[in-house]
């Protein structure tokens, strides 16, 4: 930005320059200066990925090291908190047995299947609200009520109805996903440009044609935006189902280990679940970005 000293020099060098002209020059340069200032500020806020990753690893190392030392020297009770060395020993035993992989696959299958079913059914339900305002105003409040209902309260009933097999876990995972996706799809359908619909009607397009060509594409960003949230809910639903009634899966292993006071196995199950949730979150995030790029033409 032009400084007062520079302004004085311009006035003294050329008396024909009026203060009004100088003010106009300053106002013209102001947006450019603000843009440059924001760019410099943004560059100053950028972080070094290497430093961030090193800090993350260091934080994990400090927690694990402090946990192990605390358990060894009696600062924490190893009976309740176990220790990283005991958890590692439990991991090697479970890997050697081979059945641990089957339990992981069982839980993942329940979660992913429930996620897919909940997404498809919820999306279809939400989009159906676009067809009739009366139908939407009648049904949507019940969907909102179901979404607000703690699904864990339904777990015992679901297990009684579907049994202790994988069906009950899929049903719970589906229930946790369905309502959220339905409300997302319904909200997206409400944002469709009414002018486009009127133009399509004036061109003689059928209601189904408008639905396929306008409503569904306009709603897709709303549907996609909720996927990373609902995949975690699907995993939670599968685990709750295994807690209530199952003879397989990570949830069953955690409950069984807790009943036999195998605290190391309990912690191992929790850590494996955390790792699985990260894998699912990253995978769905990649799918979300890919679908988003296709919708925007790769921009």
From TrEMBL:
Record domain ABC transmembrane type-1: where: 100-284
Record keywords: Cell membrane, Membrane, Transmembrane, Transmembrane helix, Transport
Domain of life of the source: Bacteria
GO cellular component: plasma membrane
Protein name, UniProt field: ABC transporter permease subunit
Family: Belongs to the binding-protein-dependent transport system permease family.
InterPro entries: MetI-like, MetI-like_sf
GO BP terms in the entry: transmembrane transport
Residues that span the membrane, as ranges: 54-75, 104-130, 142-164, 170-189, 210-243, 263-284
Main location: membrane
Membrane topology: Multi-pass membrane protein
Protein localization: Cell membrane
Species classification: Bacteria, Bacillati, Actinomycetota, Actinomycetes, Micrococcales
């Amino acid at each position: 930005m032009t400084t007062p000293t520079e302004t004085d020099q311009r006035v003294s060098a050329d008396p024909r320059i009026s203060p009004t002209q100088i003010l106009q020059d300053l106002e013209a340069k102001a947006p450019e200066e603000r843009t440059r200032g924001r760019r410099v500020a943004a560059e100053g806020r950028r972080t070094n990925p290497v430093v961030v990753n090193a800090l993350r690893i260091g934080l994990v190392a400090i927690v694990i090291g402090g946990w192990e030392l605390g358990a060894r020297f009696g600062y924490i009770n190893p009976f309740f908190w176990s220790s990283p060395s005991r958890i590692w020993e439990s991991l090697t035993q479970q890997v050697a047995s081979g059945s641990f992989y089957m339990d992981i696959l069982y839980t993942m299958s329940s979660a992913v299947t429930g996620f897919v079913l909940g997404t498809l059914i919820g999306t279809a339900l939400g989009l159906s609200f676009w067809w009739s305002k009366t139908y939407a105003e009648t049904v949507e409040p019940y969907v909102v009520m179901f979404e607000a209902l703690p699904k864990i309260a339904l777990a015992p009933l679901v297990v009684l109805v579907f049994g202790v097999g994988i069906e009950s876990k899929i049903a719970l995972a589906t229930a946790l996903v369905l309502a959220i996706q339905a409300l997302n799809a319904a909200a997206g359908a409400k944002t469709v440009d009414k002018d486009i619909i009127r133009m399509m009607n004036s061109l003689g397009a059928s209601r189904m044609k408008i639905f396929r060509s306008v409503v569904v594409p306009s709603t897709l960003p709303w549907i996609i935006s909720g996927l990373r949230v609902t995949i975690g809910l699907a995993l939670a639903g599968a685990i709750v189902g295994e807690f209530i009634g199952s003879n397989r899966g990570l949830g069953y292993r955690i409950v069984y280990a807790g009943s036999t006071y195998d605290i190391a196995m309990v912690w191992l199950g929790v850590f494996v679940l955390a790792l699985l949730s990260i894998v699912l979150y990253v995978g769905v995030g990649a799918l979300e970005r890919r679908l988003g790029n296709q919708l925007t033409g790769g921009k």
